[in-house]
């Protein structure tokens, strides 16, 4: 493998993963080493196109010489590192992270990978008791004012869906606080910084500045946050409406890759089409120009090709 900037061939680093030697290019992470060996390592906050944020800790591994478990997604593979990925301590830690999330967040639309990991780690979403009812005041809670629950139910982040326009909705009942949307809106892609994490502890939540409505915030509606959200918390309104009415059916959808017609950048678009209507627009992560990101025009400006009224 070569350095993308200099073109220099990178020297290889040798590490041991679960007793076997793995060679990865200098600068690779322990996660890269695990994946090079074909080990299915869970990740939630990690994405190839974003800076590791180390928020979820579901990717932890044992690293010889380290007192604590280390997040494999961001720990560089040092020469001679000895890593274990399937010890009781690692399994216990990953399972607990997934159980804390599953007990408080609606993971019903999380990716197939997340569901596979939950099955694999025998996650019990009811471990902390029956789920508490929805609340509507999360956005106004002050740091340090968290009151202890009565213990009869497990507190959740369940709350009403935020619908402020026809472009996309925010359903933070499904938010695992992975920070991917914050990074995509910030330095890793859009540099708009419309959203960030407000609050502390269990009250931490993704928010616009001062919880302003989306259409009254700094958001420029690029939809890059939707593109990286792993749980369906951020969703095209066109998808949300069809899910609500029971019309969303991925088995009847086709995906067509094309080039955005709006400007000379030439972003690739993946048009998701159902019943001859575009229902959402994504962009391939492996595109060397955009890495899955778009602007408002490519993401949402496609109505002109459909829904034409008969004249
Ligand atoms: S649509 Fe773009 S600007 Fe708006 S919150 Fe999402 S990433 Fe930020
Ligand atoms: S809204 Fe989605 S991308 Fe953003 S923190 Fe929540 S789960 Fe992650
Ligand atoms: S995937 Fe490594 S800390 Fe979240």
Task: Describe, in plain words, how this protein is organized in 3D.
The protein is α+β, with helices and mostly antiparallel strands and 311 residues long. Helices cover 19% and strands 18% of the residues. The protein folds into three domains: 12-89, Ubiquitin-like (UB roll) (Roll); 91-135, no CATH class; 162-305, Alpha-Beta Plaits. It has seven helices and 13 strands. The protein binds iron/sulfur cluster (2 copies) and FE2/S2 (inorganic) cluster (FES). One iron/sulfur cluster binds at residues 184-185, 190, 192, 194-195, 219-225.
How large is the radius of gyration? 21 Å
Report the principal-axis shape.
globular
| Helicity, as a percent range | 10-25%
Q: From N to C, what is the helix and strand string?
A: EEHEEEHHEEHEEHEHEEEH
Strand order of the largest sheet: 2-1-5-3-4
């Amino acid at each position: 493998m070569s350095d993308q900037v200099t073109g220099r061939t990178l020297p290889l680093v040798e590490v041991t993963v679960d007793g076997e030697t793995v060679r990865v290019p200098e600068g690779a992470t322990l996660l890269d080493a695990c994946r090079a060996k074909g080990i299915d390592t869970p990740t939630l906050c990690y994405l190839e196109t974003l800076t590791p944020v180390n928020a979820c800790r579901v990717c932890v591994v044992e690293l010889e010489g380290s007192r604590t478990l280390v997040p494999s997604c961001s720990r560089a593979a040092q020469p001679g590192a000895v890593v274990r990925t399937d010890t009781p301590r690692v399994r216990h830690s990953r399972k607990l992270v997934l159980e804390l999330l599953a007990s408080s967040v609606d993971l019903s639309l999380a990716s197939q990978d997340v569901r596979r990991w939950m099955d694999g780690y025998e996650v019990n979403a009811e471990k902390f008791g029956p789920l508490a009812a929805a609340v509507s005041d999360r956005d106004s809670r002050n740091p340090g004012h968290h009151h202890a629950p009565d213990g009869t139910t497990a507190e959740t982040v369940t709350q009403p869906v935020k619908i402020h326009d026809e472009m996309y909705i925010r359903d933070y009942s499904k938010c695992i606080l992975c920070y991917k949307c914050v990074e995509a809106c910030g330095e890793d892609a859009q540099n708009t910084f419309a959203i960030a994490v407000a609050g502390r502890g269990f009250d931490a939540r993704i928010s616009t500045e001062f919880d302003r409505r989306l259409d009254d915030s700094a958001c420029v509606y690029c939809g890059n946050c939707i593109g990286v959200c792993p749980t369906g918390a951020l969703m095209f309104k066109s998808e949300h409406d069809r899910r609500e009415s029971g019309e969303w059916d991925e088995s009847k959808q086709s995906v067509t890759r094309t080039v955005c017609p709006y400007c000379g950048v030439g972003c690739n678009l993946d048009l998701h089409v159902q019943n001859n209507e575009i229902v959402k627009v994504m962009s391939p992560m492996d595109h060397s120009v955009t890495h899955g990101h778009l602007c408002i025009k490519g993401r949402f400006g496609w109505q002109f090709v459909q829904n034409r009224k008969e004249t």
